[in-house]
Structures are given as structure tokens and as C-alpha cells.
Amino acid sequence: MRDRFEIWGTYTTGCGSARKVVEKSPRSDMIAAILGTHVVGTFNLKVTKKVANIGFATTKPRHGFWYHKGRIIPMGYYLGRLTHQYKESVMVWVLSWHPFVATKHNAKCASIEIVSRRPIPDCFKDGSLLRLEMFSPWDKPAIDAWWPKQPFKWFQSFPWGPQRADGTKVWNAMYKWADWSKSTVLDVGCNTGWYSFQAAKHGSAVYGYDSVPERVRAATTIGEHIENIDVDFGAEDPGGNFDVILYLSVHHQIDKTYLDLADTLTRYKKRCKTIFLELIVPPPHNSMSPGAVKDIVGGEILLEYEHAVRCHRVLWLVPGELK
Q1: Does residue 281 surpass a pLDDT of 90?
Q2: Of the residues 90, 117, 136, which one is the last residue of a structural domain?
Q3: What is the pLDDT of residues 203-234, one digit of tens each?
Q4: In whole angstroms, what separates CA 4 from the centre of its chain?
Q5: Domain tally for the chain?
Q6: Is 268 helix (H, G, I), strand (E, B) or coil?
Q7: Alpha carbon 47 to chain centroid, angstroms
Q8: Is the C-alpha dihedral spanning 94, 99, 103, 109 positive or negative?
Q9: What pLDDT, in 10s, does the model give residues 38-72?
Q10: Cis ω on the peptide bond leading into residue 282 (within 30° of 0)?
Q11: Which domain holds residue 29?
């Protein structure tokens, strides 16, 4: 099965039967969180012979969203990316409730519903032809063939990979201190995106960035084909303000002495309401005492623990300056 399918059409605003998908979804809590506050619109397909040949199953017993090489993709929700002709794009959920789109033998005009956690750009609403890519989930053999070849996989543990890190422990310590269902989140030094995905699963609109391109590519692939979560990843800080900034076990990689820690925190405080900060304490080069680190950070300690791989770590809740 191909990694993604591509169709073309136009976008209109409005809400139809999208909430019916939630009732049928095995991850209904997450989808409900997305539908609760975000944009629902309609994607009107431009059905061509090429599109029809992808095979949209419509007739019993082949009810499904699309039909490809004998395989029925059942109705439900799918992760996708909606792209304007000028290359601006937005992550969306594709919601298939009605069992008709088109058939291999009878292509016709049809529409599907899409949901986005992020505002739909105005240029998408002018009737321009848009590309909608839908990402197909990978099965276990595909994951097992891909994941062992990836670099940096030791630090963040996924249920389908080796369990070596302590992400769940840290997430549980942070969870009750933010309203994730309504937050915008910046994940600084996101690595392969584990914390980004946790926040997104609980309703947040998340942007994760990492300066290492291989990590960004891995996180993007995990989001599109394994976790199936709409997180935006990139190699640069997007700028702007956020409700929450995650700065977890990153600072020692760019400032081993912690001499720039105070300035870094000051910059991030100006951009958010809350920072979750995790540090190796004392710093790797023992250039600063634990007490001195705590004096710089301030805030409230949520967790202290010995990391499964290396070093003693401390997690703080640090108030930002935004209201």
C-alpha cells in the first residue's frame, strides 16, 4: 500500500456530520478534543478519471473511504495535509462518514469533511484548486523495517520501539499543570516528537522543532504514518507566542556550562504562559552547583529522577510572562 494518496478539490467552510465520525472512532477522545474548538470545513473533490482509478469504494459490501489494489480503507478519520497552489499548507483530519465519494466505474462530484486545529488561511477559501494528501497508517512489519534504521531513537521511547527513556514519567508529572485541550505548544528540541505527540493527543496545536534535519524527518514520518497525529515539525523556531513551551533535556546540548541558562529562560518566558523545563543537574561539566541552577530557574520542581540512560534530571514548572 502506498504511503499517501493525493486528490484535488476546493475548500468551503461549514460543518456537517463530522461529529458522527467521533462516535465510530477508536480514538474518540482525541478526535473530540480536536472537533471541540477547531475549524470544520468541506473539501469538494474534483473527481477525474485519474482520481476515480484510485478506486473509491462506495457500494455494499465495499463501504469505505477509498479502495486501492483490492484493499478497502474503512470509513473513519485520516491524517492529511491541505496545500494551496502557492505552497502554503495546513495539517488536517479527513473525516469520512458518508459511504460515497466516487467509484472506479462512475466518477462523480463528491465532498468530504476536514477538520484543522489551525486556522485555515484565507487564500484556501477563494475557490482555488487545492491538493489534499492523505497519509496511510503503517502496519507493524513496515514500522519494524523502518525504525531500527533511524538515528537518535534511544532517547524517546514509543510503544512500538525499544523502551529506554523516561518520557511517560515526565509527561505524567507535567500533565495536570496545563489545559492541553486548548493550548498552543512549542516543543523546543523535539527530537523524534514523543512529547509533541502526547500534547497533540490531548488537544493541543503543536509545533516541534529540532536543529537536526534527520530528527525532523523521523518525527514527521512518525506523525504521518505511525502515530497519525497532526503535529507540525520543522528545523527552525517559528517565532511567535505560545501557551506552553516544552524545553526538555535540551539545554545541556547547546550550553554545557549553563552560563546562558538565565538569558535563554528570559527569552522563552516572554513568549509563553508556562514553561516546562527539564535539566541535567548538575551540568555535565559540573560548572555550576545544583543550588545555583535552582536559583536561576526559580519556579516549582515537579520531578527529580535518575534518567534510565544517563544523569540526574530535574523537571520544573516555570511561569511565563504572558497572561
Answers
A1: yes
A2: 136
A3: 899 999 999 999 999 999 999 999 988 999 99
A4: 17
A5: 2
A6: helix
A7: 29
A8: negative
A9: 566 777 777 554 444 444 433 443 444 444 444 44
A10: yes
A11: 4-136
